[in-house]
Write a structure and sequence with these properties.
The protein has about 230 residues and is an all-alpha fold. The protein folds into two domains: about 10-25 and about 145-225, Endonuclease Iii, domain 2; about 35-135, Hypothetical protein, domain 2 (Endonuclease III, domain 1). About 50% of the residues lie in helices and about 0% in strands.
Length: about 230
């Protein structure tokens, strides 16, 4: 079992340094060319793989180019256009509502504040953080997706379970200059090595500083649960 460093701050710093070396080109994997496309892609990515989202949006973005295009479509039309995305019916409604609100309240422009973004249908803090970071170059927090949630707990950086609470724990631990990068590093590592069901601890560059290593223990100390 790995031995954590003497503080969570030191643990976070070590995690960032090692993962930077392991994934030097780590960045967002969703494909987009405008802020609107980014917003739509992130909304669609909830509980869906980025790979699948990229497949669906390749055609979607050819048809729906402006907020007005989404606003003028029916929920059913949009649901059909994103068929194959998880919860496509609900998300079709979100896209129609997003288009309407952007047209009516933001002069057709994707807003650039946390409060305005989270006021859009289907947009929570995670989605808003992504849009701010990659669409507006504004870094207000750390995006906590399922990979960040899982790895942060396994690495002993938090015991919280809800994304908002996890983000609050991470913000003082991770230097602000690395807030955006931290998310992508953990996503890459979660996909490549530290997956949900069968983490490959023997291939993990963090194994010796991870309190949840399986090499000498079958218990996840970060969550208190057996693997």
């Amino acid at each position: 079992m790995g031995v954590p460093l003497d503080s969570r701050e030191a643990q976070a710093e070590e995690v960032v340094e090692r993962l930077q070396e392991e994934y030097p080109d780590s960045t967002i994997s969703l494909r987009y060319s405008t802020r609107l496309e980014l917003l739509v892609a992130v909304v669609l990515s909830a509980q869906c793989t980025d790979e699948r989202v990229n497949q669906v949006t390749a055609d979607l973005f050819e048809t729906y180019r402006t907020p007005a295009d989404y606003a003028n479509a029916t929920e059913e039309e949009l649901a059909d256009a994103i068929y194959g995305i998880t919860f496509h019916n609900n998300k079709g409604g979100y896209l129609q509502g997003i288009g309407e609100k952007i047209v009516e309240e933001h002069d057709g422009e994707v807003p650039d504040t946390m409060s305005a973004l989270t006021d859009l249908p289907g947009v929570g803090r995670k989605t808003a953080n992504v849009v701010l970071q990659h669409g507006h170059d504004v870094v207000e927090g750390i995006v906590v997706d399922t990979h960040v949630q899982r790895l942060s707990r396994r690495l002993g950086l938090t015991e919280e379970e809800r994304p908002e609470a996890i983000e609050r724990d991470l913000l003082p631990l991770v230097p602000e200059a690395h807030w955006q990068e931290f998310t992508h590093l953990l996503i890459d590592h979660g996909r490549a090595v530290c997956d949900a069901r069968n983490p490959d601890c023997s291939a993990c560059v963090l194994e010796d500083v991870c309190p949840s290593s399986k090499l000498d223990s079958d218990v996840d100390l970060a969550s208190g649960e057996a693997w």
